[in-house]
Amino acid sequence: MSNLRATIKRGEHKGKYLYPHKHKDNMYVATTSRFEEDYIRVNNLDELEALVKSGYGARMSNKDIDNAPSYIVHRNIEIIPKKKGIKDSQDRLNSLTDEVDLDKDSVSKNRKEQAFLREYLLEGKEIGTCVICSNEFPFDMLVAAHIKKRSKCNNKERKDFKNIAALMCKAGCDDLYEKNYIFVKEGKVELNSKKTLTPKMNKIISEIIGNKVLNWNTSKKYYEWHKSNK
To answer: Kind and range of the H or E element at 31?
Structure first.
């Protein structure tokens, strides 16, 4: 039995449960909308749970109810606790990294890896801290950012999940880092003086310059790669 379920809130079936729907291809679907272009197909319920925890909804149904499967948003999906540790997340990431070269593969698989990596870094929490600005954000406002560009990592580096990636906020830090407006030197956030800034950007960036990143000691070589390739 799945540990994911949603309660029907209205109509003749009010109070009954919906469970993850297994499609004809034997896959479950995580999604952020009703549109198939946003579907992420996964093989098992553990993978689906990881995506739901990362902010995705799911296609759900009840075999005893003669209705088509419905898209249920993540906040309406109940996750029944079960014993599970960080090793589960790491095993999923290892498997996915070995599966394909995601940089040349589908958007769906990139999304899947991002969701699993974010779950791994959050360690089951719904709130995390941005490594750049040090502010706390809900999980769906955080990105599992690769400190060193993923396409430039070898397979060993890609599997160094705890150190190659860090949580960065969607409020600006992820883009500023990825687009090289900022970099980390000797454990502190610095401005890339080669970039052209508007007054508004200068104000935003000035608030994070000098911040200490807590993972400097373990991720130093990846930050240094980013600095040298800014």
So the answer is: strand 28-31
Above 80 in pLDDT, residue 92? Answer: no
Q: By three-state DSSP, how is residue 27 classified?
A: coil
Q: Is residue 200 part of a domain?
A: yes
Instruction: Give the integer Cα–Cα distance in Å for 161 and 158.
Output: 7
* C-beta of residue 171 within 8 angstroms of C-beta of residue 208: no
- pLDDT tens-digit profile of 127-154? 999 999 999 999 889 999 999 999 899 9
């394909």: which residue's tokens? 100
> Is there a domain that residue 156 lies in?
yes
Within 8 A by CB and 6+ apart from 171, the residues are 130, 133, 135, 137, 141
Single out the residue of 54, 57, 34, 30 nearest to residue 43, CA to CA. Answer: 30
Q: Which domain holds residue 52?
A: 4-79
120 φ/ψ angles, rounded to the nearest 5 degrees: -60, -45
Q: Is residue 93 part of a domain?
A: no
Q: Which among 26, 23, 48, 47 is positioned nearest to 36, based on CA atoms?
A: 23
- Per-residue model confidence (pLDDT) at position 101: 56
Sign of CA dihedral 70, 74, 80, 82: positive
Total of domains in the chain: 2
* Average model confidence (pLDDT) across the chain: 88
| 188 bridge partner residues | 185, 212
Q: What percent helix, strand, coil does the chain show, rounded to 5?
A: 40, 20, 40
